[in-house]
Every structure is written in structure tokens, then in C-alpha cells.
Amino acid sequence: MLKIYGADLSSPSNKVRFVANELGLEYEYVKVNLIDGDNQKEAHLKLHPGGKVPVVNDDGFVLFESNAIIRYLADKAESLLYPAAAKQRALVDQWSDFVAQHIATAVGRVLMNRVFAPFLNQEVDERSLADGLSFLERFLPVVDAPLKEQRYLAGGELSLADFNLLSALDPVEVAQVDISGHLNITRWRQDLMGRDFYTKCHKSYGDVLAAMAGG
Ligand SMILES: N[C@@H](CCC(=O)N[C@@H](CS)C(=O)NCC(=O)O)C(=O)O
Predict the structure, then answer these.
(1) Are residues 42 and 135 in the same domain?
(2) Is 129 domain-assigned?
(3) 38, 55, 208, 209: which sits with the fewest CB atoms below 10 Å from its CB?
(4) How far is the CA of 53 from the centre of ligand 1 (A)?
(5) Residue 114 backbone phi and psi in degrees, to 5
(6) Is residue 136 one of the residues assigned to a domain?
């Protein structure tokens, strides 16, 4: 059976679970404890030499990098989440790459400096925090605009691009990034967060964090 190695607060790991849920795949979710450093232990390094999550093991076929994984899973299932037609596929790739480069990274910077660094007693990098916030100010309108014209990020159909954006934005409340002014993103996000693929994974990112912090 497919095994998904991930961590509950890892957005790329959750993205893989969202997609596997949407595809209706049976899988075993194996939690890797990043705080205890289980990702740096020999058993995990055999799966991912860089010591990261997510990783999947599909009956002996081991793959890391969340976008490579979700493309593989969707292709294997011949799913329209990753359309075969060249132009449609290119648009899904375009938005997925844009989100990964410019939005997921920016949210990650804010989350790291506002939440994880203080929690782990690490120094806050003010420059990185400011950059993250300014990238979001610049790039959130870029993904808001298509969502005004069409239901989903890459067109009229749900695609892997939506899973990229949804998982990238999952921590925004926890990171105190107010996205409510982006009305199209907000509407799109509320729709997707109510779907089974999402609620099977968690109610919200904030709930997971609160549960871990004992709140
Ligand atoms: N580009 C990678 C990012 C993977 C990544 O950075 N994972 C983090 C958790 S979100 C991790 O494993 N961190 C542990 C570490 O770096 O030691 C992907 O999309 O899969």
C-alpha cells in the first residue's frame, strides 16, 4: 500500500495527503517527528537523503518533493487534476510553480519568524520576515485575479495548482497574515476547505498547532 511520510504541520506533506484523498487513494500516513529529529535518522535518510518530508513509498517506488509526488499520483490515476493536454498541463505547472516560488516561500518565512522561531527559541530574522510580508503583498493579487474570472486557479476545473495554493495558504491565520481583502482567494479557499479531501486531513492548520501546543 502507498505510504505517505509527513508531518502534521508540514504544508507540503498536507498537500500530498489532500491530493491522495481527492484521488480516493488508500494510503498509510506515517508521521515523522521533525522536532525530535526523526527526519535525520538513518531510516528516514534512506528514503530522503536530504532529511525532508514529504516522501512516499508506493510499493517500493520511493519519491520525494511534494510536487513531483502529486504529479506522479495524479498521472498514475489518470486524473484530470493534472491534465494530459499540453496547454492545460502547462497552465497547471505555471500556477503550481508560481505558488511554490513566490507564495509558499513567503508564507514560510512569515510562519518561521512569527511562530516557529519564538517557539524553538531561535533568533527571529526580521529581514526575512519583512521580505515574506512584502512578497505576499505583491504576489497575492496575482493569484486573486484569475479566481475572479474562473472557478479554479488554472481554469474551470480543479487541478494540482489549487492544491498548491491551498496548502501554501493553510498557515496564514496562524502566521497572522490577513488575506481577507483578497475576496476571490477567500471565497475559493472557503469552498475547498469544506471539501472531504481537506476535512479528512484536518479542520484547519491552526487546530493542529493548538492541539500540539496542548491548547
Ligand atoms: N520543496 C519540498 C519542501 C520540503 C520541506 O522543506 N519540508 C520540511 C517540512 S515543511 C522539512 O522536512 N523540514 C525538515 C528539515 O528541513 O530538517 C517539498 O515541496 O516537498
Answers:
(1) no
(2) yes
(3) 38
(4) 5
(5) -90, -25
(6) yes
